């Protein structure tokens, strides 16, 4: 004899399935949106390029400013490089300076974006401390390189062809996933000069 399913279960089961689906969607919404932004450049998210990426250098320059913020509970100080003027399509390397002011090793993660937001898809980074979780030892001070270029495609986009200044911003937080963090020792570069590499020209003493 076939067992009859109580009427209230026939109502509750579809609701439970819908709620479970909504919970799964909420759980994955943030990482999926983050991935979408990284691919499309929406929200000022910059792109990541391989070291072998070839770009055409064009006769147009853009002024690039740098900005850093550190969460109140993170005992780090991070100093951005000076503002530079770079050639579109040319690789440039600048250096950020970071120091752990505490007496214990600290792992941090840097969130990043670019303004104006509309140029995000045209700014590519080849090397950056923001790619991974990073560890600084107690009292350690390092210089961290960021290698980037501005894509010539920005000049062909009618919504961005008028941009002549942009800002790369980084906000440092305590890492929520310290396992697998890398030591910033590997990026540290002796301070022989504050000049940006590969053509970028510093603009006076301006910061940020």
From TrEMBL:
One of its GO terms (molecular function) is copper ion binding. It is found in: Cell inner membrane. SUPFAM superfamilies: Ctag/Cox11. One of its GO terms (biological process) is respiratory chain complex IV assembly. Keywords: Cell inner membrane, Cell membrane, Copper, Membrane, Signal-anchor, Transmembrane, Transmembrane helix. Residues 30-208 are periplasmic. The chain crosses the membrane at residues 12-30. Residues 177-208 are annotated as: Disordered. It is a single-pass type II membrane protein. It comes from the Bacteria. One of its GO terms (cellular component) is plasma membrane. Residues 1-7 are cytoplasmic. Residues 189-198 have a biased composition (Polar residues). Exerts its effect at some terminal stage of cytochrome c oxidase synthesis, probably by being involved in the insertion of the copper B into subunit I. PANTHER family: CYTOCHROME C OXIDASE ASSEMBLY PROTEIN COX11, MITOCHONDRIAL-RELATED, CYTOCHROME C OXIDASE ASSEMBLY PROTEIN COX11-RELATED. Belongs to the COX11/CtaG family. This is Cytochrome c oxidase assembly protein CtaG. It comes from Limimonas halophila. The gene is ctaG.
């Amino acid at each position: 004899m076939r067992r009859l399913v109580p009427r209230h279960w026939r109502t509750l089961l579809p609701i439970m399935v819908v709620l479970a689906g909504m919970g799964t969607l909420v759980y994955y919404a943030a990482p999926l949106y983050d991935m979408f932004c990284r691919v499309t450049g929406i929200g000022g998210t910059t792109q990541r390029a391989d070291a072998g990426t070839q770009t055409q250098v064009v006769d147009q320059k853009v002024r690039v400013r740098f900005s850093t913020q550190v969460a109140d509970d993170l005992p780090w100080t991070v100093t951005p490089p000076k503002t530079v003027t770079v050639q579109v399509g040319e690789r440039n390397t600048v250096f950020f300076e970071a120091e752990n002011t505490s007496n214990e090793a600290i792992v941090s993660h840097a969130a990043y974006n670019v303004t104006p937001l509309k140029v995000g898809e045209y700014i590519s980074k080849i090397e950056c401390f923001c790619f991974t979780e990073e560890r600084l030892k107690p009292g350690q001070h390092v210089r961290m390189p960021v290698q980037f270029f501005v894509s010539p495609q920005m000049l062909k986009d009618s919504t961005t062809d008028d941009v002549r200044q942009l800002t790369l911003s980084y906000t440092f937080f305590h890492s929520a996933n310290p396992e697998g963090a890398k030591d910033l020792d590997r990026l540290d570069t002796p301070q022989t000069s504050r000049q940006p590499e590969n053509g970028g020209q510093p603009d006076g003493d301006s910061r940020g």
